[in-house]
Every structure is written in C-alpha cells, then in structure tokens.
Design a protein that fits this description.
This protein has helices at residues 13-43, 50-61, 74-92, 136-139, 215-237, 248-280, 294-297, 304-310, 312-326, 370-385, and strands at residues 2-10, 110-112, 119-120, 124-126, 143-146, 158-165, 170-177, 190-194, 198-202, 207-209, 239-240, 243-244, 286-290, 329-333, 359-361, 367-369. It has 387 residues and is an alpha+beta fold.
Length: 387
Amino acid sequence: MVKAIKVMLIPNNVQKTKMFQYAGASRFAYNWALAREKESYEKGDKFISDSELRKEFTKLRHSDEYACLLNISNNVTKQAIKDACTAYKNFFKGLQKFPRFKSRKRSMPKFYQDNVKIQFSNTHVKLEGFSSSRKANKQKKNWVRLAEHGRIPTDVKYMNPRISFDGLNWWISVCVEFPDCKETLNDDGVGIDLGIKDLAVCSDAAKYKNINKSQKVKKLEKQKRRLQRSISCSYEKNKKGESYCKTNNVIKKEKLLLKRNHRLTNIRKNYLNQTISEIVNRKPRFICIEDLNVSGMKKNRHLSKAVQEQGFFWFRKQLEYKCNDKGIQLIVADRFYPSSKLCSCCGNIKKDLKLSDRVYRCECGNMIDRDFQASINLKAYGERFAS
C-alpha cells in the first residue's frame, strides 16, 4: 500500500532563498507551458505534447534572456511543464475546470524533486542542485534539516516528492510503499451520524463533541477577530487616495493572523484525526456514514460558518483512507436516505421533523435522541449492503 508522508523542514536562510528560487522557476515553467497550449489551441493547431514543450523550454533556458534558469535543476521545470499538460488534458476530458495561471501573490510556492536523486537520513533530506561544489562544507547546503526525526524511512523507493510553503513553514511530502496489513475485524458494524451540535454520534453510543465549542478554540477565534479588526483599521489609517499602503506594522499583524489561522486549522484537523483513529481502531466489520450535501448546507447563512468549521469533507476523506488501510468496508448511505426521520423501532417516517427537534418522539412510544437514532438507522442500512 502506498502512503503519503508529510514532514516540516527547518532550512537556513541560504536554503530558504534557494527554495523560493526553485518555486518561482516552477511557477514560470507552468505558466509558460499553459500559455503555449492556449496559443496553439487558438490557432487551431494540435495539442503540444509535454516532451516537445520540454525540448523547447531547454532551448529557452540557454538563451541570454533566461540564463538565470540554468541555476535551477532541470527536473523542477520539466515536472512543472508535465503538470501543466496533464491539467490541460484533464479539462478536455471533463475531469476538472480549465487550469488557471499561477499567481506570484496568491498561489502556494511549491516545486518537484527527482525521486531518484532525493536522499533521506534520519535527520536530514538531500535536495538536488542547491550546491554543485564537491567540497564537504559546500555540500552541506544540499542537506535540509527535518523537524521530525526518523519519520520517513531510508533506503526505499520514493514517489512524487514535493516541497511546498504554506506561508509560515516549508514542508516536504513523499509517497512510500508499505506492505499491506491485514487486521482481524469484529463482526459488528458502526453507523456514524455527523452533525453540528456534536461532531459524530456512533451507533455504539460513543459521542464526540464539537471542538469549536471548547474554550481553547473560542479564545483563538476571539484573538483572530481582534487581529482582523486591527489590520482593517491600520489599512484605513494609511490609505493614500484610493490605494492602500502596507506598513511594517501591518505586515507583522498579518503574520500573526496567519499563525492564528494555522493554529486553528491544526487543532481542528488533529481532533478529526484522533476521532477517526479511535473509531477505526475498534476494528468494526463496516462503517456507514451519510453522503452529506455540504455545499447545500453552506447556503444556510445561519449555519454556513459552523458547517465549514466542522470539516465534513476532511472527515470523510481521512475515514476512507484509514478504512482502506485497515481493510474495513466503508459504506456511504444514499443522500436522500431518511436516517433522522425514520423510527428505529416501527419504521415509521416522521415527515414534519424539524431541525430544532433534538428528541425524536414516535407514535409507537419510541422517544430517543435524534442523532443517536440516525446512527442506529445508518448501521441498519450498512447491514443490508455489507459484504
């Protein structure tokens, strides 16, 4: 099984400069290839293959105007051209939207490393082309320190190594093949009802609270709102005509705001990962969840922020990944399956059930928590389709 591992890097100032140069060259090559494809299409010519574009780009690198690209590893620009061609093809296949040009201000700086030339030790990673000198003290520039030691295995085959910058830190992600693990599963299954009041309610009576209601997250949200107001006021004070002037104080405040946003994102993702791991480690035979219409839920202006903070997409994505790793069958119930309106005792459907009704009351005398009943119904749904 192929697993992706992502580790933070701790580069020095010289290495940071080199990484930004590599990311800029990758962005330039991507935009150049996309512009060539668009130009060819508008003229009515055929699609230009990535091999032809790479040959053309090699000639461009050796011209006097773009001689600075010779200091960048050719694998970085070649892969960027290949990515642009793949994105262009996928648009005509109907797999994605039309690829946009990468912006220097808004796009995430990132670049590719050759999977053969990259090397890992327990503490460092060797990147290609940072220093071509054979001297030992110069070669140290190629070795970038890892924040987590021993996380990435050494002496294995690596796939698709990518280095990216999230605004604060540099990260390296790489795919490594691991042997498949076969777990001994239980005979019982689990139904999971996702919500806003509680993150998840399971059919085995396990309940996971909403992390966004905790004091820690509320305190960080309050700090975030204050910083946003302060930045907005600073822009208004330093406004010159119709343009806004970004002072050093504004830059400092924006960096603090970025740290708060990262902190909040990491807390929420960590809680989701811990919740999913706890459910999966029970080793049920199957897990059944709902196919939620998240984009439709966000149209409700009263609930859109709460829905976005819960991270339902990330929950499902990670659950699929971890179930596949453990060999657990994941069943996704139909979007229109009435899990909340269906009585778990008599099978009656209560059509007039409102969102404010937190307790389900049926004519047969059944009185049960709305979310817990939904998880029981999802488990029953999973029993019918489990293999």
